[in-house]
Every structure is written in structure tokens, then in C-alpha cells.
Automatic annotation (TrEMBL), chain A:
UniProt keywords, alphabetically: ATP-binding, Cytoplasm, Glutamine amidotransferase, Hydrolase, Ligase, Nucleotide-binding, Purine biosynthesis
Function: Part of the phosphoribosylformylglycinamidine synthase complex involved in the purines biosynthetic pathway. Catalyzes the ATP-dependent conversion of formylglycinamide ribonucleotide (FGAR) and glutamine to yield formylglycinamidine ribonucleotide (FGAM) and glutamate. The FGAM synthase complex is composed of three subunits. PurQ produces an ammonia molecule by converting glutamine to glutamate. PurL transfers the ammonia molecule to FGAR to form FGAM in an ATP-dependent manner.
GN (gene name): purQ
Family matches, as Pfam families: GATase_5
SMART domains xref list: GATase_5 (SM01211)
Pathway annotation from the record: Purine metabolism; IMP biosynthesis via de novo pathway; 5-amino-1-(5-phospho-D-ribosyl)imidazole from N(2)-formyl-N(1)-(5-phospho-D-ribosyl)glycinamide: step 1/2
List of catalytic residues: C86, H194, E196
UniProt name for this protein: Phosphoribosylformylglycinamidine synthase subunit PurQ
PROSITE patterns reported in the protein's UniProt record: GATASE_TYPE_1
UniProtKB/TrEMBL annotation, chain B:
UniProt-listed InterPro entries: PurS, PurS-like_sf
Main location as per UniProt: cytoplasm
Subcellular location: Cytoplasm
Native species: Occultella gossypii
Domain of life: Bacteria
HAMAP family: PurS
Chain's role: Part of the phosphoribosylformylglycinamidine synthase complex involved in the purines biosynthetic pathway. Catalyzes the ATP-dependent conversion of formylglycinamide ribonucleotide (FGAR) and glutamine to yield formylglycinamidine ribonucleotide (FGAM) and glutamate. The FGAM synthase complex is composed of three subunits. PurQ produces an ammonia molecule by converting glutamine to glutamate. PurL transfers the ammonia molecule to FGAR to form FGAM in an ATP-dependent manner.
Subunit structure of this chain's protein: Part of the FGAM synthase complex composed of 1 PurL, 1 PurQ and 2 PurS subunits.
Residues passing through the membrane, by range: none
Lineage: Bacteria, Bacillati, Actinomycetota, Actinomycetes, Micrococcales
Reaction it catalyzes: N(2)-formyl-N(1)-(5-phospho-beta-D-ribosyl)glycinamide + L-glutamine + ATP + H2O = 2-formamido-N(1)-(5-O-phospho-beta-D-ribosyl)acetamidine + L-glutamate + ADP + phosphate + H(+)
Protein name (database record): Phosphoribosylformylglycinamidine synthase subunit PurS
């Protein structure tokens, strides 16, 4: 059985939901602690949402220096699938595993809604079970969710097909409607919306409400493909 | 005891949502005549003893690597605070 780690930082909120999503697709969630210095040989790792270290300084800025991040960076530079959700995405940007940064939402609004996303790249470790161009709905909830980068970086992301998810109806001013991106290798993915909150009928967005499930089955598929 | 002051501002080309909100509120409170507002951060780093060149160098390094994110912010000043 695949073992997928979920890191808990002080101030993480969605670590249990991420672990639950992992369990629902038939993998074993492995709870990891920010002060650990190893990833306990997991097959993939998730940095969950929340407000790690109170988001003091900048969202994700202090978590970057957590003891476990050394192991995350090393593994990410190998080929371990790494997913950063919301605060996890902010941490991956601060760590420079992903490009760009997040600033406060346009009009300073805390946005909490079911958000439609378009799958732009279905070849990453976390999106390969979606169809290219498919539209999915998952919850979005944040204050610092406006993705920005300079024009050269944005052009590079577009040119290399590293925009993985785009907002359909931009909720926060993110440049070029970008909701999620990947690294050059396609094993590290970060996004602001929360797929782990859309994994069980009746508890996610209206309708099926389970559009987030395939993030996690995608990771399992990519693990199978690499063995 | 000396204090090193680090000042950080959002990059000029980056829209500053906080500054924009403050700029919108000022005229409503009667403060007209300010064309725009940008909001940044000021850190005060206290050191035991004097703020030597070595201390300042360390503060500059911390400002570049931790206190600011170069994607969105510029370090505009690292200086020793004047004695009160």
C-alpha cells in the first residue's frame, strides 16, 4: 500500500482532511511533524492548508525553515510527488520549489467559495487522472491567495505548460488566472484551492462534490507508473 | 543596546492591496491630497552591545533572505537607529 505523508506544522488546519483524502483513495496516510528531520520513507508528501506559524512575517515564510523542509526539498529535487495546498503552496513558493509568490487578495477580501478550475496540464504527478481542459469544482478559502510573479516568470510557466490549474472566474486577482502550478519535472504541484475538501459525496461542493479525489488517485497512478 | 532598523516595501510594479485600501479610506476621513499609499514593513532588530559592521552585514543578509521575499518585496533600508 502506498504511504503518503501529511506534514503538520504549528498552525496547520487541514492536515486531517488531507490524511482522510489519502485514506479514501486506499493509501496509507503517514502523519509527519514539522520538527522531524526525515520523511519516514513515504512515497509522496502533502503540505496541507492552514496558517503555519500564524503566517507571521509572510504566509509560509517561517515554515520554510522548519526542520522537515530540508528533507522535503531534497526529496522534491529527486522525484517524490509533493503537493502543497493553500498554505502548503505558499510554503513551496517561499522555499523556491515553485515559482512566484502569494499576496493579499484583490480588495483584501477573504474568499470562501466553491471554485471552478480548468485543468491545464494533466501530466503532473497530481493531475494525471483528469482530462485536459476538464472543469472541476473544489472549495477555495484564503486571504493571501493572489498569485503573482514577474512577466518573464509567467511567460516561462506558460511556455513550459507549468500552469496546472486556472481559475474559471478569477476570485482574487491572480495573474493570468493561475490557481496552481508545477515545477519543471512535474512532481511538485501547488495550488490555492482545496481538493481535500471535495472527496466525499455530501461533504463537498454541490453536485457530486468529489472532484478533488483524483488529485490523490493521480499520485497513486504516478507511483505505479514509476515502479 | 543598539537597534538595527530594516525597512521593506512591496516592489513598485506590484499592486499593493493594503496600500490601495488605505488610499481609498483617507479621503473618506477628510485626508485629501494624498495621491496614493503604499504599505511596507519595518523591523527593529536589537543587539547586545554595538551595531558593528558585522552586525549590519548579518542584518542585511537576514533582510534579503528571511525578512523579505525578493519575488514581491524590496529591502529599501538597513540602518542603525539613532539613540533616543
Amino acid at each position: 500500500m502506498a504511504r503518503i505523508g501529511v506534514i503538520t506544522f504549528p498552525g496547520s488546519l487541514d492536515d486531517r482532511d488531507a490524511a482522510r483524502a489519502v485514506r479514501l483513495v486506499g493509501a496509507e496516510p503517514v502523519r509527519l511533524w514539522h520538527a522531524d528531520d526525515s520523511l519516514a520513507e513515504v512515497d509522496a508528501v502533502i503540505l496541507p492548508g492552514g496558517f503555519s506559524y500564524g503566517d507571521y512575517l509572510r504566509a509560509g515564510a517561517i515554515s520554510r525553515f522548519a526542520p522537515i523542509m530540508g528533507a522535503v526539498v531534497a526529496a522534491a529535487n529527486g522525484s517524490l510527488p509533493v503537493l502543497g495546498i493553500c498554505n502548503g503552496f505558499q510554503i513551496l513558493c517561499e522555499t523556491h520549489l515553485l515559482a512566484g509568490a502569494m499576496i493579499k487578495n484583490e480588495r483584501l477580501a477573504f474568499v470562501c467559495k466553491d471554485q471552478t478550475l480548468r485543468v491545464e496540464n494533466n501530466t503532473t504527478a497530481w493531475s494525471n487522472e483528469y482530462a485536459a481542459g476538464e472543469e472541476i469544482v473544489v472549495p477555495l478559502k484564503n486571504q493571501d491567495g493572489q498569485f503573482i510573479a514577474d512577466e518573464a516568470t509567467l511567460d516561462e510557466l506558460e511556455g513550459e505548460a507549468r500552469v496546472v490549474f486556472r481559475y474559471v472566474g478569477n476570485p482574487n486577482g491572480s495573474r493570468r488566472d493561475i490557481a496552481g502550478i508545477t515545477n519543471a519535472r512535474g512532481n511538485v504541484v501547488g495550488l490555492m484551492p482545496h481538493p481535500e475538501h471535495a472527496v466525499e459525496a455530501g461533504f463537498g461542493p454541490e453536485g457530486a462534490g468529489t472532484d478533488g479525489l483524483r488529485f490523490f488517485t493521480s499520485a497513486l497512478s504516478s507511483l505505479l507508473a514509476s515502479t | 543596546m543598539a537597534r538595527v532598523v530594516v525597512e521593506i516595501m512591496p516592489k513598485p510594479e506590484i499592486l499593493d492591496p493594503q496600500g490601495k485600501a488605505v488610499a481609498g479610506a483617507l479621503p473618506r476621513l477628510g485626508f485629501t491630497g494624498f495621491a496614493s499609499v503604499r504599505q511596507g514593513k519595518r523591523f527593529e532588530l536589537e543587539v547586545d552591545g554595538e551595531a558593528t559592521e558585522e552586525v549590519l552585514a548579518a542584518a542585511r543578509k537576514a533582510a534579503e533572505e528571511v525578512l523579505s521575499n525578493p519575488v514581491i518585496e524590496d529591502v529599501v533600508s538597513v540602518h542603525v537607529a539613532k539613540e533616543d
